[in-house]
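Lab channel / #folding
Pinned by the channel admin:
"Please post every new chain as: sequence first, then the structure tokens as a reply. Keep commentary short and put observations after the output so the thread stays searchable."

First post following the new format, from NK:
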Amino acid sequence: MTPPPNGRSPSSPLATPRWWIAALMIFCLHIQSESNFFIADSRAQQALNSLLAAGRSGVSFFYILSGFVLAWSVRPTDTASRFWWRRFSKIYPNHFATFLIACLLLSWRGMEVIDFERMFYNLTLLHSWPPEQGDIWYSFNAPSWSLSCEAFFYLCFPLLYAGLRRLRPAAWWAITGASILFVAVLPFGIKVFDEPFGWSEHFVVYHLPPVRMVEFLLGMCLALLVRSGWWRGPGMTVSIVVILGGMAVAAFLTEEYGLARDAACTVVGYSLLLPACALADVRGSRSIWRARRLVYLGEVSFAFYMVHEICLYAVRHTFGDDHPHRPSVAAGVLVLATFCFALVAAMVLHHVVELPMMRLLTGRRRRASDGGASTGGDGAGQSGGGRVVPAAPEPVTAAAI
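Reply from TO:
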């Protein structure tokens, strides 16, 4: 097919609403699992558990989407050092800013802040690596543990991408299938091993970066299959139905299988949805994702992810208590207020820290790399055999991913 007139692809801002959905799912998870706004065991809390528990697969969606977008938007003339610097410029300023805010919040609560071991692991983005160290995993700003995994993915990305590009589409299909099977079976199969290496199932399945990189690798292979025209899959409607079905199955599984059970049940649906969305973007199909407000929410989604737990903590300890007794309606209003608080805080972080620091840190490098970038390598057009080959993505800026 020929490129759409607007030249848009998932590397353009149209990809950003997907990040917002992932961030919102994780916000829902934390409202459901960590807030004490509702009376324990009340009907409102039970309803909340049922409605918002699906957010547990948000991290998995985030990792698959990350691999997909990065593989889709590779700059043909880029270098590993430029790629790593853009990734650092994107994530670290927000991480450091929220680290400082978390320190102030913990001090306000009269809790211990100065802990050099936790500070070292947190500030070096290594805090998801120590086995059985929950106080390190969730130190300071708890959601930042996932950045530890992402940092490992980014470190490996240039080598992974170079290796995958040397393979044939049949190998991409094989890796895709093996990755889906691994994610789907791991939460259940890990029980065959009784704490391998003395590590808990939760650490191995949920926190260990090399294990979570399978989802990132899955996203990369999906992007390569779509870009090369070899993807065969349903549209967005069927994909969403498969995701909802997986979430329904996960809701019936017991806590015994941990947080990763949701990833196991939704990995097929997410693997169908992302290529469907990518092809819809390339074809210029009408989509809710093009709504301006949703695009903007996608742009602030990383900042929202980084501040939402801090805002939840602040609201919970300002208006909540260990044994809440407020009516369900009042609790619902408090949840809505928390969301609005987090969204405003995210907008401030995005415009005051994220964007200025990215401009400061990547300004010269971006001009150098964009000046020589091209869209070659995966040319657009109609290939043999009637396969649909999307346009090669335009170079993507750090702000897009």
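NK: The chain has 15 helices and two strands.
TO: also worth noting, The longest strand covers residues 381-382.
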